[in-house]
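Quick one: structure tokens for this chain, please?
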Amino acid sequence: MPAPMMDTYSPPDLVFDHGKGTRLYTEAGDAYLDFISGIAVNCLGHAHPKAVAALNEQAGKLWHLSNMFKVPKGIELAEKLCAATFADRVFFTNSGAEAMECALKTARRYHFVNGNPQRYRIITFTGAFHGRTFGAINAGGNPKYLEGFGPAMEGFDQVEFGDLDAVKNAVTEETAAICVEPVQGEGGVRAPEDSFLRGLRQICDEHGLMLIFDEVQSGAGRTGKLFAHQWVEGAEPDIMAAAKGIGGGFPMGACLATEAAAAGMVVGTHGSTYGGGPLAMAVGNVVFDELTSDGFMDHVVDVSNYLRQQLHGLMDRHGDKIAEIRGKGLLVGVKLKDGFDPKKLAGLARDRHLLVGAAGDNVCRMAPPLIITKDDASEAVAILDEALDALEAS
């Protein structure tokens, strides 16, 4: 008899009982090296002692209030995020898709309160993924995710990722914003040139548009900076969606904005029953403090450089199967050549107790906990080497 759940996922016949650090364990005690971390979520690994302690302490005091009342830990975390970024205002959500919905609404609302309600269209990019809510799938524009859900939502103009000329040609008097991932995740772990992000900022400044960055997957230290766009001087957004790693495994997201961008988001324009609740805020503060502790980002940069070096060696050994090593920091993609399936590679790696994922554009995706060591990286590459030996063309 099938499980009484919608068949929207197809997990393998493998159940994990607990995790510790960079590894997951079955009930029988079999260990698996986790190089996907819940799709870039468990940035501090599994069962991080400080996060566990914070959650347990808060769970014994207060679980939920709603936003009818202030949550002091939420104010504390918002202050930390604003101090560390471009932002002046924060709205907490439960997920990345909700953070994106808030970002889209904030951009349109900005133009409405400034006397330009006709400016509502948002430029997005091929290969984008912004979540699974109705607004988010329309912003992403992937036909696979839109199929069967009725007519596409009006108001999004999609252009080629990385093409500034296409962006310029897409701007009209109705354009409100440009929305982009500084590093695409689902779209194939693609990092554009720095000049592309700077160019988007310039276009927005020239035309009075809002620049939205979707840092749901590329943020929370994933690239060696708190947020990926911080590598690029002159490319700060007006609005940003964050989630995944900022909760370290506890569901939470955030929409960050400048004072000007957020000015229209007044009482009654947006809300969330669970967003910014006491449990999430307790954990979120611990995660932020760990990510911004002395030497943490240096470690991410160091170990990611080592992993990338090892993966290039893997590409040299398997040049018949690997086309390219992609990504930034510890958001890494191994693009396979035509005829080789990244899902099959992930299965072969899993058989050898390494957990990786797949993404668009024929890419095997890795987003391990940010606490991995060079030994972990070497072990993962050695297992991938074996899995690639076993990988056959489809």
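The longest helix spans residues 296-317.
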